[in-house]
Design a protein that fits this description.
Number of helices: 9
Helix content: over 70%
Order of helices and strands: HHHHHHHHH
Shape: elongated
CATH architecture of the largest domain: Alpha Horseshoe
Radius of gyration: 44 Å
CATH superfamily of the largest domain: Tetratricopeptide repeat domain
Number of strands: 0
Number of domains: 2
């Protein structure tokens, strides 16, 4: 009987310990699952927040791109307007200089030139031809300037008339006629303000017509004869050796 009591005690205690062991394992498992679920929820929340932030950034970038496009359109319009103003400015400036300095051009006119009979008509016809060129009607402008040259052989506007007539033919792709007019300007009025521009126009015609060597020679002549002119600056840039292409 004494030996049986310990056995009975052990048999009574074991089920209770087994119950405790199962509860602890269950709690551990529940805690583990709770931790895993919380971790997954945190990841989902972080991903959701990241998507929201990304969506906001995308919308912000879209707004910035739209703003930049608008600014580019404005700048493009401003550049186009500026170029047009510059073109009109130089054409008008040439016209005004001819009016302010008629004596200087008269001194450089050919010996066989005759005085104009109607200065008012002379100025009117020159400005009309210049207006045709400014409006892009290059064929009409070239013809108008050629008619002006014939009608007013003693005009102080003759150098400019030759230049704009040559420019009109250049715009039309009639390079031979343009070269004749540019060359005559340089030969007849070498001291005129348009002489360097005429040489540059002649070089352009030669290069456009495939005479690269002749164009280069004309550019070199321009730099040599009129080193301080704006046309010479352009000529020097064209004559400068180009750097070799970068190897990929």
């Amino acid at each position: 009987m004494k030996r049986l009591l310990p056995l009975l005690f052990i048999a009574a205690v074991l089920p209770a310990q087994a119950g405790l062991f199962d509860d602890e394992e269950a709690r551990k498992r529940i805690d583990q699952l709770r931790t895993e679920v919380n971790a997954r929820l945190e990841k989902l929340e972080a991903a959701s927040r990241g998507q929201i932030v990304l969506a906001n950034e995308i919308e912000t970038l879209k707004a910035e791109v739209a703003k930049l496009r608008g600014q580019l359109e404005v700048l493009a319009n401003e550049i186009e307007a500026t170029q047009k103003r510059q073109k009109d400015f130089y054409v008008d400036l040439d016209n005004r200089l001819r009016k302010l300095e008629p004596q200087a051009s008269v001194e450089a006119k050919p010996a066989d030139a005759k005085a104009p009979t109607d200065p008012a008509a002379e100025t009117r016809d020159y400005e009309a031809a210049l207006g045709l060129f400014k409006s892009g009607r290059h064929k009409d402008a070239a013809n108008a300037f050629l008619n002006f040259i014939k009608a007013y052989p003693a005009s102080p506007f003759l150098p400019s008339a030759h230049y704009w007539a040559g420019s009109g033919h250049y715009q039309l792709g009639e390079y031979k006629k343009a070269i004749e007019l540019f060359s005559k300007l340089v030969a007849t009025w070498p001291e005129d303000a348009k002489a360097p521009d005429a040489l540059l126009g002649e070089a352009n015609c030669q290069q456009e017509s495939g005479d690269a060597k002749g164009g280069r020679n004309t550019l070199e002549t321009l730099v040599e004869k009129y080193p301080g002119s704006a046309a010479a600056v352009v000529a020097k840039q064209r004559l400068a050796p180009r750097p070799p292409p970068k190897k990929k």
